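Morning run. Coffee first, then this:
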Amino acid sequence: MLFLLILCFGTAFLATALLVRYARGHTERYGSTVPQRFHTGHVPRIGGVGMLVGCTAGWGWMLGSQWLNPSAPLPPAEFETVGGLWVISCVAVGAGALEDLTQRLPAGYRLLLTVTAALLAVWLLHLSVPRLSLQLFDGMWSASPWLGIALAVLAVSGLPHAFNLIDGYNGLAGTVAVVCCFALAYVALQVGDRQLAAMVLVVAGASAGFLVWNYPRGLIFAGDCGAYLWGTCIAITSVMLVMRHGQVSAWFPILLLVYPVWETMFSIYRKTVRGQSPGVADALHFHQLIYRRIVRGVFDDDEARRMLMRNNRTSPYLWGFAFLTVVPAVMFWNNTAVLIGFAALFVVAYVWAYISIVRFKVPSWLRR
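And here it is:
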């Protein structure tokens, strides 16, 4: 699997380098006054295309290995799984790239495209969430298979937008995605599913190759296509892990991904309360508040350098916040009660931290 990581890293690194060099032309149409803009200059936003190239190399090598090593071929079902994941990823990245290149795709159409990718995943990969790991509800859940299919569609269509929401600063969403991929691979190996572990490590390697150019220099952004790739692949492998292995709690991926998921749910709530459409962009997300009210200003004669340095200093705060959920998720991946407890604790901590930042009641040591 180390070779697979190196292959995907190197391929994505080179593909992203080409995008950095030749893909600046499309960036001039981006507005300079949009609320979510925290950089200067024209930066390509199609890093997801470079990551997809890396993933294609990795998944292609996995499929080709059955001919290179006939004594250990992939079972037909696994061949179908890897190929299906590639097809679905292409649809998701294509939908995001369409928005990144045109900036004219309404939020409703973007949601429709991710739902289409989710339905394709259900059809090609037979995705379904088979249980909630709650004894009180699992009987009813198993008696109504459509509930599991509906939840799988919700997860695969919603998580791409959740990653897109936290993709606001250099290295933030990419690092969260890499950590989540390694966590999924670790649990997959714990239950003996090397195939699933390899599939998700492909995404980790490709994301790491992209991050070399994204953090700390901010030479390229993942864009919608990158966020959609992360969300789609991580959601699919999460559902497959729970679906294949009964000992894995359904709450493991929930706790693992609670940061982007809760950020999205909380954003929908606060916008609805204020009478705004959830699809309207604003500058009140958690990471944006940390940028404005916690990260100290940088004194430099160059405005672009000042903004870049503050941008880079924001991401580590959120990395630490995400690790608070990843670590217990990996430690207690088969203990539903503990996973639910940590998920509830995160929600409380998030709301407390958000309110504290809004009311300027942040401890001084956090601003150092």
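The CA atoms of residues 171 and 201 lie 18 Å apart. Good start to the day.
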